[in-house]
Amino acid sequence: MQLSFLTLAFAAALLASLVTKFWLASRQMRHVAAHRERVPAAFAGTVSAESHRKAADYTLAKGRFGLLSTAFGSALLLGWTLLGGLDVLNMALRDALLPAAGPMAYQLALLAAVTLIGGLLDLPFEWYSTFRIEQRFGFNHMTGKLFMLDLVKGLALGAAIGLPLAAGVLWIMGATGGLWWLWAWGAWVAFNLVLLVLYPTVIAPIFNKFEPLADEGLKTRVQALMQRCGFAAKGLFVMDGSRRSAHGNAYFTGLGASKRVVFFDTLLSRLSPPEVEAVLAHELGHFKHRHVQKRMVMLFGFSLAALALLGWLTGQSGFYTGLGVTPNIGAPNDALALLLFMLALPPFTFFVAPLMAHFSRRDEFQADAYACAQADGGSLASALIKLHQDNAATLTPDPLYVRFYYSHPPASERLAALPQPAT
Ligand SMILES: [Zn+2]
Q1: Are 70 and 413 in contact (CB under 8 A)?
Q2: Strand pairing partners for 253?
Q3: Quick one: pLDDT at residue 202?
Q4: In this model, does residue 38 exceed pLDDT 70?
Q5: Average pLDDT over residues 378-404
Q6: In which element (H, E) is residue 160 found?
Q7: Residue 265 pLDDT
Q8: Burial tier of 74 (Cβ tally within 10 Å: 0-12, 13-18, 19+)
Q9: Distance from the CA of 362 to the center of ligand 1, in angstroms?
Q10: 245 C-alpha to center of ligand 1: Å?
Q11: What was the pLDDT predicted at 233?
């Protein structure tokens, strides 16, 4: 490895992000622990002391585990880059595959190997989170068999989608010259748009069952709401979320004709019809405000900037040596550059996360306001409280932690923003 400005910048970003993560997590855990014994006044009538304590304990358990996996992730990243892991793996695969199978096979094997090793090392963490933490708090419905089945399906899907995509990008990098990053960006945008259509209709059904909302009374109510809001009354689905977890949720997804609202069965079993209507009105608010489209435009802008940067970096030998890798001579460096870039970028982009979280929380407030205009605000409030309880989400998060990470505003802020009922 050659020490360079890049080495120092990367090491500094990794250290800074690690310190910030630990600092934020410890703030969050202290804050939650300090408020464990007292239900906040705004929730005194609706949330029991017992479920408040459970939310605190759940948050603390996840927080402690999060510290462990963050530390492990940073060590692994250091191992791949500055400590030479990627360099060793690259040389081994290159010498074994390049002469016999050619440059494309060698490069695909390198991408696949790094992905598989990362996934394998992550597996114990996923297992512990599901079968220890979620289990302890009564949320886990997953069996060992389902866990394995999900794993096999995920692998097959990753190979079926990831390998052709990677081959396409590598081909573009090798064949289209100096502006390859612009072509690659076009391919990336097209891939994401296709995925947006295929995800709800083809991919999600591989893992869960989706059935059209069947409850007639609820359907009538929901159809009236959709008509009021100017939506075609179709694309309402119930998902068997209870197969894996007791957590409840609702989301919307898709593009054009594949657009749909999905309710977890766990959510429907807990909410009254007016509450379901209010939650749906919130989701329709996301549609009305075009939040998905805006998010995609923003992400496409970011990815264009990132690819342009990579386009420049691939030609600099200092990009490889500064991050602990010897560039190939007589073999393409494209897969190596992609991997290094994907590995090295997160410590830098970590500090953009608060901005993304800010936009996301703003969208939630907008969707809530829309829901209150189209449905009953009181029902939205009670649905939000139930959802928080069912997910054991803490009512007393650390404010700074919220600013950094929360994609949804905490319950207290959301309820305070709803129009107050006349007293
Ligand atoms: Zn929302």
Answers
A1: no
A2: 260
A3: 93
A4: yes
A5: 94
A6: helix 144-175
A7: 94
A8: middle
A9: 10
A10: 20
A11: 59
Q: Distance from the CA of 97 to the center of ligand 1, in angstroms?
A: 48
What is the separation of C-alpha 117 from the centre of its chain, rounded to a whole number of angstroms?
A: 20
pLDDT of residue 369: 97
Dist. CA 387 → ligand 1 center (Å):
12
Average pLDDT over residues 210-230: 89
pLDDT score of 318 more than 90: yes
Percent of the chain residues topping a pLDDT of 90: 86
For residues 89 and 326, the answer to whether their CB atoms sit within 8 Å is: no
pLDDT the model gives residue 259: 79
316 confidence band (pLDDT: 50, 70, 90)? very high
Q: What residue has token string 């060992």?
A: 144
Residue 198: C-alpha distances to residues 205, 209, 251, 253, 259 (Å): 10, 15, 16, 11, 11
- Report CA(285)–ligand 1 centroid distance (Å): 8
The residues placing their C-beta within 5 Å of ligand 1, an ion, are 364, 367
Can you tell me the mean pLDDT for 270-289?
93
Structure tokens that stand for 353 in this block:
């996360």
Q: How far is the CA of 46 from the centre of ligand 1 (A)?
A: 22
Backbone phi, psi, residue 98, to 5°: -60, -50
Strand partners, 273: none
The residues pairing with 252 across neighbouring beta strands, listed in sequence order, are 261
Q: Which two tokens stand for residue 179?
A: 């502006």
CA–centroid distance, residue 353 to ligand 1 (Å): 18
Token duo for residue 399:
């404010």
Does residue 232 carry a pLDDT above 80? no
CA of 282 to the centre of ligand 1 (A): 6
Token pair 């390049």 is found at 98
pLDDT at 419: 81
pLDDT digits (tens, 9 = 90+) for 143-163: 999 999 999 999 999 999 999
Q: Mark out the alpha helices in 314-398 (DSSP H runs).
A: 317-321, 334-344, 346-349, 353-374, 377-390
Contact between 364 and 259 (Cβ < 8 Å): no
Q: Largest Cα–Cα distance of the chain, in whole Å?
A: 80
Euclidean distance between the first and final Cα of the chain, in Å?
A: 70
Radius of gyration of the chain (CA): 24
